[in-house]
Amino acid sequence: MKQWIPSLLILIALGIIVWWSVGIRSSFATSKQSVFSRDQGVSSFDHFQEISSVTANSDPLLSKFTNTSLAAPASNIPTRGILHTSERGGTPAHASVKVGQKDFTLIPNEIGMFPRVLVPANGKIQIEVAYPEGTPEDPLVIQAEDGGLLDNGSVVKHEKLNQQKMVLFEFETKQEEGIYRVTLRKGTDEKRLDFWVGDEPKLQKGS
C-alpha cells in the first residue's frame, strides 16, 4: 500500500498543475476577449463619428446634434434680402393723377396700393396708369369700389393697354365725404387707387 503513495501524490500534483494552467489560460482568453470588445467598441464609435460628420455636412440642420464645430457662425448665416416693390407688389406700374390744376405721380407699395390723394366732392379726376412690363392690348378691368362713377357712367369698365402700355380714364367722386377706391385688375395682378373727399381723419392718440 505504501508503494502507491508516491504515485498518488505525483498524480495529485499533476492534477493541480493542469487545473492551474487551465484556469490561467481561461482567464487570459477572457481578458483578451474583453480587450478586443473594448477596441471594437472604440472603432465602432469612431465609425459613428465619421458617419455623423458626413451626415452633418450633407444636412446642416443635423450638425448641432452631431458635431458642434460644424455649426456656422451667426454672422455667416445668409439673410433674405429685401425685395423691390416690383417683386413684392406684382406687375410694376405707376400712375399719373390730375385733380384740377394739381398733378400727382404715384408709385404703389408692396401690396399694390397707391398713395392716398385728397380730392374735392363731385370732382373729376384724370388718371393714367402705366405698366412698363405690359404688352399693348393687355386687358384690364377697372372698378369703383366705394361709389363714384367711371367715364362710361358705370362702376365697372373693361379696357386694354394702348401702344404706350398705358390705360387712360376718368373718375368722378360724389358729394359724400370719405374714401373712394378704384381697383385695376390685370390678370392676377391688382392695383388700387385711393381717393379721399373731405378732411382726412386724424389718428387719435392713446390716453
Query: What structural category characterises the helix and strand content?
Result: alpha+beta
Low-confidence parts, pLDDT < 50 over ≥5 residues? 34-88
Shape field: rod-shaped
Count of helical regions? 3
Oligomer: single chain
Largest sheet: 5 strands, antiparallel
DSSP helix fraction: 25-40%
Mean pLDDT: 74
Cα distance, first to last residue?
A: 124 Å
Compute the number of strand runs.
10
Query: Which sequence of SSEs, written as H and E, runs from N to C?
Result: HHHEEEEEEEEEE
The radius of gyration over CA amounts to 44 Å
* Strand line-up in the sheet with most strands: 2-1-4-8-6
Task: Report strand %.
Answer: 25-35%
Question: Could you characterize the architecture of this molecule?
Answer:
This protein has a five-stranded antiparallel β-sheet with strand order 2-1-4-8-6, with no helix packed on it. The chain is rod-shaped. Helix content is 30%, strand content 30%. The protein is an alpha+beta fold. About 27% of the residues have low confidence.
